[in-house]
Design brief:
The protein has helices spanning 3-13, 27-35, 43-54, 83-89, 120-130, 150-169, 188-208, 235-249, 266-279, 293-303, 310-328, and strands spanning 19-23, 63-69, 93-97, 102-104, 112-114, 134-141, 173-180, 217-218, 256-259, 286-291. By secondary structure, it is α/β, with parallel strands linked by helices. The chain has one domain: Aldolase class I (TIM Barrel, Alpha-Beta Barrel), CATH 3.20.20. It has an 8-stranded parallel β-sheet. The chain has a two-stranded antiparallel sheet with strand order 4-5. Helix 6 (150-169) links the parallel strand 6 (134-141) and strand 7 (173-180). The longest helix has 21 residues, at 188-208. The radius of gyration is 19 Å and the shape is globular.
């Protein structure tokens, strides 16, 4: 696929005020969320929850793309229709998360590196044949005293760039996701500094790997204080710091930024995205969302594994998607909350 076609995919994902659903948590991560509703972490339950989301009436009004983990790419609904085909009928593009998670970085105590490049070219070729249009790769960076090291940032940036190059070679739009974790007591300024350094390493690596910036999307976390920070910062400060960082570090050639919720919680993720779009106009990129838990949690709680609760769960999911689409247009208000 040419650079032009990849750019068209990027703009299709950014169309209107729609955003992305990241239904791509690994089985172990989704299992932790299932524990909260006393639901067994089985493949059948994971498929049933994703089917609930995929078949939600009206969700396509607010979602342009859905990414799955590789386990569910071939999944079918209870009526024997592929998830990919259900979404395509509604004009929603299908993506896949292709990284294999973070593992300890050798000779770097307390730090990790994302794995999954082995065999990625072949996997991407197979995914393209299934109808996959975009692929995500997360690089998870944890903040601690003296960490992350420059080694950690550069190694993870290289992985993101290799993933992006392989995706573009396969005709699949890459979504690169540098994810700065909220754990810890760091303040807003420290998160800003580390994210700035990560972006510097990332775009240097993308350039070295000859990746066309017009044919990718950036999916970062926002600039946020750690959960244990004494100063949690105002909505306005978080929005302004995040946009200031984008202006400093992200080339205008990138079509758009689709933020990860990063563990903020569903309301906070919506409020912060809205504040950026309200306070900052005429940016070179579209600011939208690629949320997982922040879109799914209300639905998961309403469902709780009960067939009788599917409709209620779908209504909760559709409402959350609607609110975040409003935030992507700078049109959200807390009075819109259920």
């Amino acid at each position: 696929m040419s650079k032009l076609n990849l750019t068209e995919v990027a703009h299709a994902l950014l169309g209107g005020s729609r955003g992305l659903l990241a239904a791509d948590d690994p089985a172990r991560t989704l299992g932790k969320r299932f524990q909260k509703i006393a639901l067994e972490n089985t493949e059948a339950n994971r498929r049933a929850f994703r089917e609930l989301l995929v078949t939600t009436p009206g969700a396509s009004d607010h979602l342009s793309g859905v990414s799955f983990c590789e386990e569910l790419l071939n999944a079918k609904t209870s009526s024997n229709e592929r998830f990919i085909d259900v979404l395509a009928r509604e004009g929603v593009l299908t993506g896949v998360r292709v990284d294999r998670g973070s593992r300890p970085l050798p000779f770097a105590p307390g730090e990790g590196v994302t794995e999954g490049l082995d065999g990625l070219r072949e996997r991407l070729d197979n995914h393209a044949k299934l109808g996959v249009r975009f692929a995500k790769w997360h690089a998870v960076i944890e903040l601690a005293p003296g960490l992350p090291s420059e080694l950690c940032l550069r190694v993870n940036a290289a992985g993101l760039a290799q993933h992006a190059a392989l995706c573009q070679e396969a005709g699949i739009l890459p979504i690169v996701a540098p994810e700065i974790l909220m754990a810890g007591d760091h303040g807003l300024d420290r998160c800003y500094d580390i994210t700035r350094r990560m972006f510097g390493c990332l775009f240097e690596a993308l350039f070295e790997h000859r990746v066309a910036l017009e044919g990718l999307l950036l999916a970062p976390t926002m600039v946020l204080p750690g959960r244990k920070a004494n100063d949690q910062s105002s909505v306005e400060d978080i929005a302004d710091a995040t946009v200031r960082l984008l202006k400093h570090a992200v080339p205008a050639a990138v079509p758009g930024i689709v933020f990860l919720s990063g563990g903020q919680g569903e309301t906070a993720a919506t409020v912060h995205l809205n504040a950026m779009n309200v306070r900052h106009k005429n940016l070179p990129w579209k600011l939208s969302f690629a949320y997982g838990d922040a879109l799914e949690q209300a639905a998961l709680t309403a469902w709780s594994g009960k067939a009788a609760q599917v409709v209620a769960a779908q209504e909760a999911f559709a409402e959350r998607a609607k609110l975040n689409a409003a935030a992507a247009a700078g049109a959200y208000s807390p009075t819109m909350e259920p």
